[in-house]
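User: tokens in, sequence out, please.
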């Protein structure tokens, strides 16, 4: 999550205040529901990460400041933002989700 991401404008319009409703960093700061575990995998070779379009440390800081959230941020060396990255970890995410939904 980036805090405020310039890409949101193409989807959500020019009202930057409204963007916060779709940004995990801001949502995590204000979250007040039941305790949640969050699993996030980030490819270390992701060009969006290297270009500072993705800032997972901002989400990490927001979650650290909210006792209701537990973030497991796993940085994956050698992976970018593509198909092989997703296909390598999707089963673990399905298992994680099933554990929390069922």
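Assistant: Sequence out:
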């Amino acid at each position: 999550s980036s805090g405020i991401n310039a890409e949101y404008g193409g989807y959500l319009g020019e009202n930057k205040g409204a963007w916060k409703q779709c940004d995990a960093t801001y949502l995590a700061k204000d979250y007040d529901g039941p305790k949640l575990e969050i699993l996030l995998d980030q490819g270390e070779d992701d060009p969006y990460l290297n270009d500072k379009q993705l800032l997972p440390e901002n989400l990490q800081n927001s979650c650290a400041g909210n006792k209701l959230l537990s973030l497991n941020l796993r940085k994956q060396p050698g992976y970018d933002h593509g198909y092989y990255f997703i296909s390598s970890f999707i089963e673990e995410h399905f298992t994680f989700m099933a554990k929390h939904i069922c």
